[in-house]
Amino acid sequence: MQYEDRITIPTPEGVALELTLAGMGSRAVAGGLDLVFKGLIVGLLLLVLYGLFGDYGAIVIVPLIGLTLLLYDVGFETLRGGRTPGKSIGGLRVVRSSGRPVDVTASMIRNVLRLVDGMALSYLPTMVSIAVTKRNQRLGDLAADTVVIRDRRGIDGVQPSFAAGGATASAAPVHAAAGANWDVSAVPPEDLVTVRAFLERRSSLAREPRMRLAAQLDGALRPSVGGADVSDPERFLEILYDAKRARG
Q1: Burial track 214-232 (b if 16+ CB lie within 10 A, e otherwise)
Q2: pLDDT tens digits, 51-66
Q3: What is the largest CA-CA distance in the chain?
Q4: How confident is the model at residue 108 (pLDDT cuts 50, 70, 90)?
């Protein structure tokens, strides 16, 4: 049976967002790295507990381990764009199946189930589920409606930038400075995904569709941005993207 390694998500603005799914191998590597980091955190906490309470500290070992494993994943996934340290090193991240960023509820669901289908059962349900599902989803992903994808670091790096005609890292300080006084707090993350998709693919569009789509995105997003002082739609979208990304 052939399983897809990519998913294409249509957006309301007509831009198709293509995401590359993470396979079992890359997920296993990222998960192994996260287990190492979790072990270090748990070990440090246990040293502190034994130092403070002696043998009485053993009373809280089991709930402490479960809570640490859960909060580690939920905290990093919701605060760092779906990237735990292991996923970040491995170039992966978690998103909703719609392409939107993972939220607290979805992350909590997928990671509570990880406590059941992960270490407790030697990851056998996880491996089977990833192998047989169409979008490489484990049970927690199915319940939370999430997928794990390969991250595009050239786009989602610390200082991404889209100069006219394509992405260039050297232009990041220029765009960040241009949007320094813009208020982009009202622009939701899902709209940023749409802007990114357009900026990535605009060079492949014919002139008229490109201009029309840029104008549509400009008209939809400009009312949510305070202080925008450029009139060109594509320039507005470039600066908006960099300003929003630079502020997390």
Answers
A1: bebbbeebeeebeebebee
A2: 777 777 667 777 877 8
A3: 73
A4: very high
27 contacts 92 by C-beta, under 8 angstroms: yes
